[in-house]
Amino acid sequence: MRIGVLGTGMVGQTIAGRLSELGDDVMVGTRDPDATLRREEPDAMGNPPFRAWQEQHPEVKLGTFAEAAAHSEALVNATAGGASIDALGQAGAANLAGKLLLDVANALDFSHGMPPSLLVANTDSLGEQIQRAFPDARVVKALNTMTAAVMVHPDAVAGGDHHVFVCGNDPGAKAQATELLTRFGWRNITDLGDITAARATEMVLPIWLRLMGALQTPMFNFKVVT
Amino acid sequence: MRIGVLGTGMVGQTIAGRLSELGDDVMVGTRDPDATLRREEPDAMGNPPFRAWQEQHPEVKLGTFAEAAAHSEALVNATAGGASIDALGQAGAANLAGKLLLDVANALDFSHGMPPSLLVANTDSLGEQIQRAFPDARVVKALNTMTAAVMVHPDAVAGGDHHVFVCGNDPGAKAQATELLTRFGWRNITDLGDITAARATEMVLPIWLRLMGALQTPMFNFKVVT
Predict the structure, then answer these.
(1) Residue A211 and residue B192: Cβ atoms within 8 Å?
(2) Residues B73-109: pLDDT tens digits?
(3) Which candidate in A147, A164, A203 is best for mutational testing of the B interface (most B CBs within 10 A)?
(4) What totals of helices (H) and strands (E) does chain A contain, helices first?
(5) Which of A110, A113, A194, B215 is the 20 to 30 Å CA partner of B16?
């Protein structure tokens, strides 16, 4: 399947690499591909520059947001949440129309200090903002409640016995997202309803961040037990 | 131990009953004890009126917020979150001073429809509001991420193998809260830091509410797996 992954950071790299490993035809989208490839410093989190990653993944293409979106049958939004609407605008509404747009982003707000708060919360969410801005895209929010390595390799934590949540307005897109999650190895996939449930999953971030501090590792997840 | 439980709803009843069963000397606090005892209708959730519950728990005293606070060495805030600051004001700052105040409340906002949103979120929390309003109380936020029956009987879900979170500014109060939780049967108690972490645990409510809808039961909890 032709999949566009928007965002060249750690999350975009991790998802693009995994999809490619699973046999998909992947193009990563970025604002300015030349600038992305020229960057030689690690990012703010200490991750190596994109070029170093791409040398390990020569089969993954790099293009503009619009090229990656035009290339693809389905898209993953792995841009920073605060920049997602702009990035998707550059991708182009026409290139998103009718396609699954798997939104894994969180809109973190560092302006109030650490740990970050959310740029949107409680009565709205990034997932809803994206669906409103691009009504013809089939937005599914998922995977935003864990670290990138766990998103694509759930078995890296507790043998994979923990949960991922999906929500969105389009049942077909949710089924497609669920199939993709299953290919990543997810067994416990809980449908929380329409895209307004993105408020709920995005508001998991604050406790996720506190737990990362308490556990001193991002390699954990939530299991819903009954 | 003499414990005051503020709030006569389902959460207050459940916690008061359990503490009493464990041997504590419990007084439930309410705005107007006569009015509480006169009420004959079930509450909005269909729970029986307080009087019916008290007939089953004759050893639990009922008093005003101030009487319950004055009676006690430690307090539990089980009032509705939107009314908590006012209820604690009636309890009286002097009656709270130096005591553990275990805040289990969530400030739900039904004005935006169902499921409810939060009255305070993201860059502040009810737990912090309470600590600011009553600086001499030793506020610990805990137990607000699950249904009342699970709060006091963690073994009712998955053999008790799941998590409760505590946070607060006073290490001694957190130790006291942890001991109380241990008496309830909690084995996995995670300290998330100071009272600002109440933002994180209060923001769990939205996903808890969505999961209750998806699972069709409130008898579940989160286990943090690594």
Answers:
(1) yes
(2) 999 999 999 999 999 999 999 999 999 999 999 999 9
(3) A203
(4) 11, 11
(5) B215
Q: What is the residue-wise DSSP string for A9-27?
A: SHHHHHHHHHHHHTT-EEE
Q: Do B213 and A200 touch (CB under 8 A)?
A: no
Q: Is residue A223 part of a domain?
A: no
Alpha carbon of B185 to those of B93, B173, B188: distances in Å?
31, 19, 9
Q: What is the CA radius of gyration of chain A?
A: 16
Domain residues for the domain of A143 are 2-215
Q: Which of B34-48, B150-164, B179-193, B204-218 has the lowest mean pLDDT?
A: B34-48
B167 belongs to a structural domain: yes
pLDDT of residue A44: 79
Give per-residue pLDDT as tens, B52-68.
999 999 999 999 999 99
- Residue A64 near residue A30 (C-beta atoms within 8 A): yes
Q: Which of B114, B122, B166, B187 to mutate to test the interface with A (most CBs of A within 10 A)?
A: B122
- CA-derived radius of gyration, chain B: 16
Q: Between chains, do B222 and A219 touch, taking CB under 8 Å as contact? A: no
CATH number of the domain bearing residue A31:
3.40.50.720
Cα B36 from Cα B52, distance rounded (Å) = 11
**Chain B residues with beta carbon closer than 8 angstroms to that of A211:** 190, 192, 224
> What's the pLDDT score for residue B126?
98
Low-confidence ranges of chain A (pLDDT < 50): none
Tokens describing residue B79: 């009032």
Which chain B residues have a beta carbon less than 8 Å from that of A190? 211, 214
- Give the gap in angstroms from C-alpha B99 to the nearest C-alpha of chain A: 26
Average pLDDT, chain B: 97
In the predicted structure, residue B45 carries a pLDDT above the cut 90:
no
Compute the distance between CA of residue B37 and CA of residue B55 in angstroms, rounded to an integer.
11
A71: tokens are 């290339």
Q: Which residues of A touch B206 (CB under 8 A)?
A: 122, 199-200, 203
The pTM (predicted TM-score) of the whole model is: 0.97
Give me the residue from A121, A220, A226 closest to B224, CB to CB: A220
Could you give the number of structural domains in chain A?
A: 1
CB A164 within 8 A of CB A225: no
Query: Which of B40-54, B110-124, B135-149, B154-168 is predicted least confidently?
Result: B40-54
* Domain presence at residue A99: yes
